[in-house]
Model the fold of this input.
Amino acid sequence: MRLAGARAPTVRIPLAHFLAIPFWLLVAAWLFASSCEALQASRWAPASLAQVHVLLLGVLGNGMLGSLQQFLPVATGADTRRLQRAGTTLFTLFNLGLGLLVAGFLHQSAWRGWGGSLLALALLPFAALALHALGRAGLAVTTRWQLAIALACLASAGALGLWLALARGPLPALSHAQTVDLHALLGLAVGVTALLAAIGAVVLPMFQGLARWSERSQQTAWLAASVVFLTALSSRLLGVVDSVALALLAALPAVWLGACVLYGQWRRSSRRRPGLVRAWCFGWLLLVGAVLLAGFGHARHPPALPAAAWLLLASALPLLLQGMLLEILPFLHWNRLVLARPPGSHAHLPGVDALLPERDKQALLLLNGLFTLCIVLAALGDGPSMWVASGALLALQAVALLVVMLRCLSRVSRVLKEFGLTAA
Done:
C-alpha cells in the first residue's frame, strides 16, 4: 500500500494533539510525586481516577486522535476534509474537557460533569466523522472493521463516561463497579487493542519491515479476540469474575498481539528505524510483564496490582505511542516540505531521519526505562521517595519529548526559509 502524501491534513491539526502530550505528562508527573499514598491505596481514590484519565486521555487520547487524523487520509486515502475542518474545535473541547474532568476528580466538584460533557462533545463527533471517512477508505475489509469497532468502542466509552461524570449512578441492573469496568473495557481493552491491531496491520510492514499479515490470519485473530472480549464482558456483568479477573481476561488479545509483533520483529529482514523497533519491543514486553505481574503477583503481594496498572498505563502504552509519534512527526513535516518545495528548486531536501535523528529517540527510550524501574519500585512499596523520583523522571521525559519535537520543528523552519517560505 502506498502513502497518499498529497492527502495529508494541515500540519497544525495533528501537531496540536502531539504538542499537548508533554503537557499532560507533566500533569501526570505532578500527580505521581504529590499523591503517592492515594495512588497506592485504591483505584477509587480521586487522585487515582484523575491520574488514569490524564494518562489514557491526555497522553494516549491526544496521540490517537492526532495520529488518526494523519493515518486515515495518508495511509488509507480516506476523505477527512470534514474532520479537518472540525479539528481545532474538537481539539479544544477535548483538552479543555479533560482539564475540567481532572479538576473535578481532584476537588470532588461539579467540574467533573462539565468536563465529561465537553469530552463527549469532542469524542462523539470525532468518531462519527472518522467512521464516515472510513466508508470510502482503501483498506482491507478486516482492517476497516477493526478501525470501525475501535472508533465505536471509544465513542461508547465516552458516552458511558459522560453518564458516570454526571453522577447518574450505575447502569440499570449493574453495580457501580460493573459500570466502571464496562467503561474501561470498551475504552481501553477493546478500543485501544483494536486500534493498535488495525494500524499495526498497515504500518508495521511499512515502517518496521515485518511480513504482512494475511487477511485470513487477521480475521481468525479478530474472531478469537471477539470471543475473549465477549466472555470477559458477560462474565463480569453476571458477577462471575471480579475486576482483576476481568482485566486479565481482557488483556489476553493485547498480549497475543504483542507476542506476534515481537516474533515478527525478531524475524524481520529489514534493519530500518531501530529507534521505533526498540520502543515497540520494549513497550510490548512491558505490557506482557504488567499482565504477568498482575496475574501472578496480586494474590501473594497486593501492591503488585497497582504496580502492574501503573506499569501498563504510565510506561508500556505511552512508549508504544511515543515510538509511532516519533516516526509520524518527522514524516508529517517531511511530506510538508515535499509539497512546499518550489518547482525546479535546488534547495536541499533533508531526509526523514535528518528531521528527527535516532539519537533523540534513544535518549527518550533511556528515560522511559529509568522511569519504568522507579514506578515499579514505588508501587511495590519502596516509600514516598521513589514516587517523587518517578514523578521527576516522568517530568524530565516530558520536557525531553517537547524539546525533541521543537527541534524537529526548528529544522523544518530552516528548510522552509531556504525555500523562501515562512514556517506558518
